[in-house]
Design a protein that fits this description.
By secondary structure, the chain is of the alpha+beta class. 16% of the residues lie in helices and 43% in strands.
């Protein structure tokens, strides 16, 4: 079941964070409604990218965790 967890803004762009399952999230860029990747919060934090830089996806994942857009409960360090 997919649940929209919220939006985050990183480097001037807004992304929708969608929960795919336990600790798994999909990231969609709102500007063009394109999936740009996924991340997992189960230690260690991992990302998979689709057309964007890995560092940008890490920044999006960190922003989502720090702004409580995930179900993160202290399982990892967002730094």
């Amino acid at each position: 079941m997919q649940v929209v967890k919220g939006m985050v803004q990183v480097h001037g762009a807004t992304y929708r964070v969608v929960r795919l399952g336990l600790g798994a999230y999909q990231v969609i860029r709102l500007l063009d409604d394109v999936v740009v990747g996924e991340f997992r919060t189960v230690p260690p934090l991992t990302v998979a990218v689709q057309g964007i830089d890995k560092d940008l996806m890490m920044a999006i994942a960190r922003a989502a965790i720090q702004r409580a857009k995930t179900s993160w409960i202290g399982r990892l360090s967002p730094t």
